[in-house]
């Protein structure tokens, strides 16, 4: 019987660690390293049933993909009920998920101290900045997580330091607190093997398409419990009317909760361009020097030339702001380069980017172009076949072959191949975030 067993849960100040045992058939999806997460607040007084939430939030989707059961000593009753709802949503969303059963020796219903606080997962991108603007009266704690797009590897130390500096600066400017979480959740999971098995079923990667709504929110549980947070917000990537198979959606995030805390999928009723409108109104009224950070290639600023930088810059112009005033080097000459890159298929684009460029096109059809270069680009975009722009982008054949090989290899062979596979997959951009 396929199974995952959570055991040896320990805390030391703000550090959580536990080991996981699996049945033989699931060994390839879990590394030999223990699961570790470090918080900047003590979690010593957090009940074990809440401490188990971060690890359960990572391994349960893996179990559901394999029809496996999960065993844990203690679980918060509210979260156990939430998992049932999330499981149903993800299984309805993805045909390859089979589901499974969670078994716990004890369920608990703790009554945490609440201090009427809220938290917001924050990167400084369009979506999370819009959510800050919408909830700024609550003075939410800005929560930043290391472990997904910024890995726990020492090679990413500079990126993490840059993000912390930027978020801390934003928090200081706006009178907010911060919370920083560092975890090995994606190196603890064998993400290359998950990609090898399931990339063929999803538009993005495993974590983006399946795991990250439950995974990122669940990772916050001990911190939220210790801080007394009633509400935890995660900004929507997509919006009403877009039915994509994505790991963070209202029918996932809105179910996630535990003792004392409810999670919220925020601003789903707004398109990305409408979120930029919210930001633009806030900029004009209160914060004229606000800068956004959305770059695909840099964490310490915006390169101005990746797809996301171009997309955000065009959106800012349509919202009535000058991109160069808000972190994006952009001029009329960039419209020509942007069009060429889109036509050549220079970027790996998915269905979410197709919808976002469609959103820009809808707004551009209502707008009066400010310059001839802008008018030329919008005329081209009006006639462009966005489905073709997406379909011409995709992972190289070599990566698809490597995935197939890893998927079918016995564990002993896979373990020997793993270093080569890890090196090869490093060139593949398999996650897209902070849309």
Would you mind describing this structure in some detail?
This is 7-cyano-7-deazaguanine synthase (Queuosine biosynthesis). Helices cover 45% and strands 16% of the residues. It has helices spanning 48-51, 53-65, 77-93, 126-135, 157-173, 185-188, 191-198, 206-219, 221-227, 250-253, 272-285, 307-318, 333-344, 351-366, 372-383, 386-391, 397-408, 411-425, and strands spanning 3-12, 15-22, 35-39, 69-76, 102-108, 117-121, 141-146, 178-183, 229-235, 257-258, 261-266. Strands 5-4-1-2-3-8-7-6-9-11-10 form an eleven-stranded mixed beta sheet, sandwiched between helices. Helix 7 (191-198) crosses helix 17 and helix 12 packs parallel to helix 14. The chain is globular, with a radius of gyration of 22 Å. The model is unreliable at 396-409 and 416-435 (pLDDT under 50).
Structural class comes to alpha/beta
What summary fits the major beta sheet? Answer: 11 strands, mixed
| Euclidean distance between termini CA atoms | 40 Å
Beta strands, count:
11
Please estimate the helix content.
40-55%
Oligomer: single chain
Which band does the percent of strand residues land in?
A: 15-25%
Task: Please state how the strands of the largest beta sheet are arranged side by side.
Answer: 5-4-1-2-3-8-7-6-9-11-10
């Amino acid at each position: 019987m396929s199974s995952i067993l959570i055991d040896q849960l320990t805390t030391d100040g703000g550090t959580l660690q536990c080991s996981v045992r699996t049945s033989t058939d699931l060994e390839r999806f879990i590394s030999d390293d223990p699961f570790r997460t470090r918080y900047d607040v003590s979690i010593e007084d957090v009940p074990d049933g809440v401490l188990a939430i971060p690890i359960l939030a990572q391994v349960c989707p893996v179990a559901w993909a394999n029809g496996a059961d999960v065993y844990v000593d203690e679980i918060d009753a509210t979260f156990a009920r939430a998992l049932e709802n999330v499981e149903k949503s993800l299984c309805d969303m993805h045909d390859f998920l089979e589901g499974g059963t969670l078994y716990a020796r004890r369920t608990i219903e703790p009554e945490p101290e609440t201090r009427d606080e809220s938290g917001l997962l924050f990167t400084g991108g369009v979506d999370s900045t819009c959510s800050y603007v919408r909830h700024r009266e609550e003075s939410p704690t800005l929560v930043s997580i290391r472990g997904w797009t910024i890995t726990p590897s020492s090679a990413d130390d500079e990126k993490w330091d840059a993000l912390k500096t930027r978020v801390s600066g934003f928090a200081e400017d706006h009178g907010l607190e911060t919370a920083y979480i560092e975890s090995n959740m994606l190196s603890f999971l064998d993400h290359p093997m998950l990609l090898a098995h399931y990339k063929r079923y999803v538009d993005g990667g495993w974590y983006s398409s399946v795991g990250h709504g439950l995974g990122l929110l669940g990772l916050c549980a001990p911190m939220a419990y210790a801080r007394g947070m009633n509400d935890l917000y995660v900004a929507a990537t997509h919006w009403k009317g877009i039915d994509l198979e994505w790991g963070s959606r209202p029918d996932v995030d809105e179910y996630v909760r535990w003792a004392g805390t409810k999670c919220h999928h925020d601003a789903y009723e707004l398109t990305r361009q409408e979120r930029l409108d919210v930001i633009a109104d806030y900029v004009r009224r209160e914060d004229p020097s606000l800068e956004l950070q959305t770059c695909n290639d840099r964490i310490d600023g915006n390169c101005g030339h990746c797809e996301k930088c171009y997309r955000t810059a065009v959106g800012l112009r349509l919202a009535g702001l000058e991109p160069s005033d808000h972190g994006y080097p952009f001029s009329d000459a960039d419209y020509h380069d942007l069009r060429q890159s889109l036509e050549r298929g220079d970027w790996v684009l998915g269905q979410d980017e197709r919808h976002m460029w469609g959103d820009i096109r809808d707004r551009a059809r209502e707008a009066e172009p400010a310059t001839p270069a802008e008018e030329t680009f919008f005329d081209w975009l009006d006639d462009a076949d966005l489905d073709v722009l997406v379909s011409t982008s995709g992972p190289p054949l070599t990566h698809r072959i490597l995935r197939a090989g890893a998927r079918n290899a016995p564990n002993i062979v896979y373990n020997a191949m793993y270093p080569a596979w890890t090196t090869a997959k490093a060139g593949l951009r398999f996650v897209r975030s902070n849309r």
